[in-house]
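haha ok so turns out i had the wrong file open the whole time. this is the CORRECT one, sorry everyone. sequence first:
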Amino acid sequence: MKKPFRILVVEDEEAIRTGLIDVFVYHGYEVQGCENGSDGLAQGLTGQYDLVLLDVMLPGMNGFDICNAIRQQDRNVAIIMLTAKNSDEEIIQGLKLGADDYVSKPFSVAQLVSRVEAVLRRSQAGFQRATIIELEGGIRIDTANLSGESGKNKLVFTRREIEIIKYLAEHSARPVPREELLTSVWGYARNLDIETRTVDIHIAKLRRKIEADAKVPVNLVTVRGAGYRLMLPD
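then structure:
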C-alpha cells in the first residue's frame, strides 16, 4: 500500500489551521499543524514532510524566513505560501525565496486542495530522464543534481526551476505558453480557473541565474503573445 503524503500546515489562526488539517486528513493525507513560526521551522527542517503549507504572517518567525531556511536545506520539499489577498509584495517575495506557488486569502478550500494535489503529484513524479543542458555563455545545468555552472560560478536550482528548464528544453522548437507550463509543470487542471503570477516570477528567477543580463535574455526569451522559449545552441 502506498504511503500517504505528509503535509505540514503552519498557520496561527486556530480555526483555519484546524479546518485545513481536517480537510486534508479527509482527503487521505497525514497532517501536522503548527501555530507559530518557530515550531513551523523546526518541523519543516525535519525532512519528514512532502509539502509545507505556510502562512506568511506568523508569531515568532514569519513565513518568508521559514521558507528561506527550509530551502537552504531542502530543495525538493514542496512549499505553498498563504498570502494576503492581492499582496504583490508577499507573492513576489515568497516565490523568490523558493516557494512553489502561493494561494491568496480568502481562498476556496476546493481549489486549495486541487493545487496541493497537483504540486505533490508533480513533485513526486521524479526526473525520468536526467540530462545535462548547455546554454550560451558557458551555462551548464545538471538536472539530476539541481545544480549548474556559469563559468567558475556554481548555480543552485530548486526542483521546480529544473522542471521548468527540462520542459522548455524538451519543447525548445517552439515557445511554450504560460498556461501550458501551469498544466504540464505545476500539474494544474486546464479547467482550474486561477489567476497566478507564479510562472512569470519563476522565469524571472531563472533568468537571474542563467543570463549574463537578465534584462536582455538570450537563453530564456519571451516570444510576445506566445510564451517562453529556451534557446538551445545548435
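The chain is about 40% helix and 20% strand.
again sry for the mixup
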